[in-house]
Probable branched-chain amino acid transport ATP-binding protein LivG (Halomarina ordinaria), 284 residues
Amino acid sequence: MSDTGPAQRPQAEQGTDSEVEAAARHTPRGLPLRVENLRKEFGGITAVDGATFAVEAGSLTGLIGPNGAGKSTTFNCIAGVHTPTAGHVYFQGEDITGLRPDRIANRGLVRTFQIARELHDMTVLENMMLAPRGQVGESLARSVLPGLRGTVVEQERDLYERAWETLEFFEIDHLAFEFAGNLSGGQRKLLEMARVLMTDPQMVLLDEPLAGVNPTLEKKLLERIHDLREEGYTFLLVEHDMDVIMNNCEHIIVMHQGKVLAEGEATDIKNDDRVVDAYLGETI
Ligand code: ADP
Ligand code: MG
């Protein structure tokens, strides 16, 4: 996978560091995603009410909060599914607020989507091949232009190889010729993740990727997320299961009533009275 993902970060050198090297290790790795004063109203309902947070490069960051806290709406505003009422979303330092989802995806920020109905009658492999956007081969007119034909064939072959490699990585290559509609709920989640990788993202937004997934597949999916994170991908994960977030995310953002209530490591969050209060009355 390393040839398709972002460049690996250099490993920290062994042994004693010079002062400069030691300081460099404490320099933040960058914040590819920044959300500032994000607000989204639906009629009279304020779903997101001035949320501000940032996600560190190469991290697996968790976004949690009781039902109705505004997590999904925040995701949808980041990914361009909703246009925010106010506030800004920055990706890699550029303002992407209000851009269309495909434009945002082209910049390397993608969210997983449920496999659309019309893709159920296509095979898993076909689903993979259709996932990337902006391919030269998409344009039929251009594909018949002399000189470009070779590029198209080459690109198709690369895609095909990458599709297989990615299916193997998620251990669903044995399902390549199965119709997507015949997959179990958990297998479909793996395919959704695999399809996202075909778009060559830098950062992936996951909204409850483990909902309805059996424990074996859940473990597999989490392992794959960790593998990809080690390769340099950045993840923002919304998940209702607290244990999953606490055990897997190094940084956690807690939303409540449309706002960011708390941020920190699992131990900080667990011991934060405001978080405990926000969850009172919720079964988690
Ligand atoms: P979460 O994902 O944290 O459970 P949501 O972002 O889905 O929360 O919802 C936040 C609030 O916004 C809720 O009160 C919800 O009912 C409302 N809401 C979400 N989407 C819409 C919508 N499309 N139209 C109207 N209200 C919505
Ligand atoms: Mg939600």
Observations:
- DSSP finds eleven helices and ten strands in the chain.
- The chain has a mean pLDDT of 85.
- The first helix runs from residue 19 to 25.
